[in-house]
Specification:
This protein has 119 residues and is mostly beta strands. It has one helix and nine strands. It is 5% helix and 39% strand. It is globular.
């Protein structure tokens, strides 16, 4: 289980977007934490740099489906959420709100360093 196409996700950074929809993945049916996906902005704050209808790359930072860690523990988050990325695959926002999985470090190390909680 993971994130499918047309799944609505929350945004965990301060880029201005509130909700996004997954519109594409890299040749897989589902995506898991740490994967890069294409998203379209559904809902955004007024006067922000991100507008409704814009298409961005995003990295998945938490999912409601369980994640099996190497030490045998299972980890499950309360929401499906992403962090928006620009064309150079760097995070758009300057802060990351909420918990973030360690596997996002391979995409952009600043995501885990800006996060409040890293698991």
């Amino acid at each position: 289980m993971g994130i499918y196409k047309m799944t609505v996700l929350g945004v965990s950074d301060n880029s201005g977007a509130k909700k996004v929809r997954c519109i594409g993945m890299k040749s897989k049916k589902t995506s898991v934490v740490g994967d890069i996906i294409k998203v379209s902005v559904i809902k955004a704050e007024p006067n922000s740099q991100v507008k409704k209808g814009d298409v961005y790359d995003a990295v998945i930072v938490s999912t409601r489906s369980a994640i099996n860690k190497k030490n045998g523990a299972w980890l499950r988050y309360s929401t499906n959420s992403v962090v928006l990325l620009n064309q150079k695959l760097q995070s758009i926002g300057t802060r990351v709100l909420g918990p973030v999985d360690k596997s996002c470090r391979s995409v952009d190390p600043l995501i885990t360093s800006r996060a409040e909680e890293v698991y």
